[in-house]
C-alpha cells in the first residue's frame, strides 16, 4: 500500500551535516504521519522525529531536538531529516516509517506499519 525508501546516508565527520531523504510511493494519500527512527548496532530502534501529514506537526526526541529537523516537500511525497552538528553517537541505521492507520502514538515502533530498508549514517570523530 505504501512504500518508503531512504537515501542520503553516508560517512560524515563529527560536527558536520547530512540530509536524509525518504521517498514515499503508493497510497501516499493515506499517510497520517511519517517518522524517522534509528538503530545503532546492538541497540533497540529509537525514535528520532515525526511529522504529521495533516497538520504539519512535528515531534522530536529530546536528544535530537535542536540539531535535527524533519520536514516534507510540498507534494508530500518526500520527507527529509536534516541533521546538523552530528556526533559519533548519532551513528546508526536510520529508518523511515509511515503510518496509514491513524495510530495515535508518535514515538513507538508499533505506531508505524510501513518501514524502509534503512540508510547507514556513520559519524567519524
Topology:
Layout: E1 2-7, E2 10-13, E3 18-26, E4 33-39, E5 46-52, E6 58-60, E7 68-72, E8 78-83, E9 92-99, E10 114-115, E11 119-124
Parallel strand pairs: 2-11
Antiparallel strand pairs: 1-3, 3-8, 4-5, 4-9, 5-6, 7-8, 9-10, 9-11
Describe what this molecule looks like in 3D.
The protein has 125 residues and is mostly beta strands. It is 0% helix and 50% strand. The chain is built from no helices and 11 strands. It has strands at 2-7, 10-13, 18-26, 33-39, 46-52, 58-60, 68-72, 78-83, 92-99, 114-115, 119-124. Strands 2, 4, 5, 6, 9, 10 and 11 form a 7-stranded mixed β-sheet that branches. Strands 1-3-8-7 form a 4-stranded antiparallel β-sheet, with no helix packed on it. A hairpin with a 5-residue loop joins β7 and β8. The radius of gyration is 13 Å and the shape is globular. It starts with a strand and ends with a strand. The mean pLDDT is 94.
Amino acid at each position: 500500500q505504501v512504500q518508503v525508501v531512504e537515501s542520503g546516508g553516508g560517512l560524515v565527520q563529527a560536527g558536520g551535516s547530512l540530509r536524509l531523504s525518504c521517498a514515499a510511493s503508493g497510497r501516499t494519500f493515506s499517510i497520517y504521519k511519517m517518522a524517522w527512527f534509528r538503530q545503532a548496532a546492538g541497540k533497540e530502534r529509537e525514535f528520532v522525529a515525526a511529522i504529521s501529514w495533516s497538520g504539519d506537526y512535528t515531534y522530536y526526541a529530546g536528544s535530537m531536538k535542536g540539531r535535527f529537523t524533519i520536514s516534507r516537500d510540498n507534494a508530500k511525497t518526500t520527507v527529509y531529516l536534516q541533521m546538523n552538528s552530528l556526533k559519533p553517537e548519532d551513528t546508526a541505521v536510520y529508518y523511515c516509517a509511515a503510518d496509514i492507520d491513524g495510530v495515535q502514538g508518535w514515538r513507538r515502533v508499533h505506531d508505524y506499519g510501513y518501514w524502509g530498508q534503512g540508510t547507514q549514517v556513520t559519524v567519524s570523530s
